[in-house]
């Protein structure tokens, strides 16, 4: 997380909009969480075997417990990352939709509305 903290200290570039800066920060957070969880998973799996071996179970029980604990750890890490990436993607999508609707409201005319002219294009009165 240190790189994220130092990345937050720097200013936005001259040619960089706030959206680009926010997306860079979001991607940095996602990469940090991904790398941290994957490294924690591998460290856990390598340490798990020594914990299982310290109880001196029979080999079949040891392998079954090791495989089931490694699968549970993998399921936790993959679910956590899937939820994290899903929340990030949902936030970006929601912000994009909000920006689109805000742009439509500020544009004056509503989205998809057209100006309809009746008659033959002239400004003549209806009684002629």
Task: Give structural notes.
- This protein is mostly helical and 128 residues long.
- Helix content is 73%, strand content 0%.
- The protein contains three helices and no strands.
- It has helices at 2-9, 18-54, 59-106.
- The longest helix has 48 residues, at 59-106.
- The protein is elongated and about 100 Å long.
- The chain starts with a helix and ends in a 22-residue tail after the last helix.
Protein topology:
Elements lengths: L1 H8 L8 H37 L4 H48 L22
Helix pairs in contact: 1-2, 2-3
Task: Name the features.
3 helices; mainly alpha; 128 residues
Brief characterization of the structure:
With 128 residues, this protein is mainly α. It is 73% helix and 0% strand. It is elongated.
User: Counting H and I runs of at least 4 residues, what is the number of helices?
Assistant: 3
End-to-end separation in angstroms reads 77 Å
Q: Assign an overall shape.
A: elongated
Spatial extent as radius of gyration: 29 Å
The helix content is over 70%
Sheet having the most strands: none
SS class: mainly alpha
Order of helices and strands: HHH
Percent strand equals under 5%
Query: How many strands appear in the DSSP assignment?
Result: 0
Q: What is the mean pLDDT?
A: 84
In terms of per-residue confidence, which ranges show pLDDT below 50 for 5 or more consecutive residues?
none
